[in-house]
């Protein structure tokens, strides 16, 4: 399996638009992002080209325009990002991450219930 490329915050906005609907032209990506960011179409094209160089996006020529699609899934990217985050900050371990959030009162009652449910599923071998 090829490595998942590093994707910047701005590039991730473009990827989200492609994960939602593909293929899309640069104009369609810019329109989809329009409410979230006030980017010019040239900015979107620059980000698409960066993503192409990283092999995160693929392109298909359709007449005079280009149609872009994600070359990686959102799940692949999310797995890579979360693993990198855990490795960098918590030595690859989840427990210290949860402890950090609990010490800083960032876990809601709903979060705690969800964690208990997930731990129960792990204990049951699911």
From TrEMBL:
GO terms for biological process: negative regulation of DNA-templated transcription. The keyword Lipid biosynthesis does not apply. InterPro entries: BlaI_family, WH-like_DNA-bd_sf, WH_DNA-bd_sf. GO terms for molecular function: DNA binding. It holds the Pfam family Penicillinase_R. Keywords: DNA-binding, Transcription, Transcription regulation. It comes from the Bacteria. Belongs to the BlaI transcriptional regulatory family. This is BlaI/MecI/CopY family transcriptional regulator. It comes from Rugamonas aquatica.
